[in-house]
Amino acid sequence: MRAIAMALMMGAALAASGSSLAAATAAAAPKAAPTATAAAPPTATSWIEGKHYFAVKTPRPLGTRPGRIVVTEVFSYACPACNAFRPHFARLKASLPATVDVDYVAAAFRADEDWPMFQKAFYAARVLGVDARTHEAMFDAVFKTNELAVMSEDGRSVRSPAPSLEDAAKFYARAAGVPADKFLATARGFDVDRRCREADQFLKTYLVLSTPTIVVNGKYRVDVTSAGGFDKLIEVVQWLVSREHV
């Protein structure tokens, strides 16, 4: 009996030792590294050419640097929808690959709402090299501080008189330190006039009828209505850009 009891005790000890060894081995074993998952590229779940976006009949390259993709926003500082689109477009720009250049074309087809003046102001600022750092502030001057507001306070009519180039000159003097007389001379000069005519031709070439409108690499046009809203517009542009990378 004593021999049987000892045998049972030795068996239990060996079993416990084996369990401890297995546990220690499992703990010491290296853990599998987590698998990295690449972000899924934009997919065309339901984007239809001729409905959500439009191919340009005669595509024209817009960039001057080889291998670059150009995304162009057609806008106006006096356009309420363009003002509302600002945070969405900022999100779009942040999501685009490093090979994409973003550009702007100022529209002037709403002369009844002072758009030609804002077009001249934009291209004067571009010639003077202050367009990038005053772009957001210009929208704020129209829609937030009312320094350059076009519409009356109730939004039912255009202010009379509407903002003038002289008013814009005061803005750029304050916001960018550009002397008012220098701004006005630039805005009324040949270079700005040429750029305005080129912008008008751009709208005709790409059949831009509303703002904001996005032109992708001189090949595709998409606007808020065709895409189905601001967020959908961003998705369509991201997908079109991904097609240009292929």
Descriptive account of the structure:
This protein is α+β, with helices and mostly antiparallel strands and 246 residues long. The chain has a five-stranded mixed sheet, with helices on both faces. The protein has helices spanning 2-28, 80-95, 115-127, 131-143, 165-176, 180-187, 190-205, 224-227, 230-245, and strands at residues 54-55, 69-75, 100-106, 213-216, 220-223. The model is unreliable at 1-41 (pLDDT under 50). It has one domain: 3-Layer(aba) Sandwich (Glutaredoxin). It is globular, with a radius of gyration of 31 Å.
Helix-strand layout with pairing:
Layout: H1 2-28, E1 54-55, E2 69-75, H2 80-95, E3 100-106, H3 115-127, H4 131-143, H5 165-176, H6 180-187, H7 190-205, E4 213-216, E5 220-223, H8 224-227, H9 230-245
Parallel strand pairs: 2-3
Antiparallel strand pairs: 1-5, 2-4, 4-5
Helix-strand string:
HEEHEHHHHHEEHH
Q: With helices defined by DSSP (H or I, 4 residues minimum), what is the helix count?
A: 9
Do you know the CATH architecture?
A: 3-Layer(aba) Sandwich
Kindly report the oligomeric state of this protein.
single chain
- Fraction in helix: 40-55%
Radius of gyration: 31 Å
Name the average pLDDT. 85
CATH superfamily: Glutaredoxin
Short précis:
With about 250 residues, this protein is of the alpha+beta class. The protein has a single domain, classed as Glutaredoxin.
List keywords for this structure.
globular
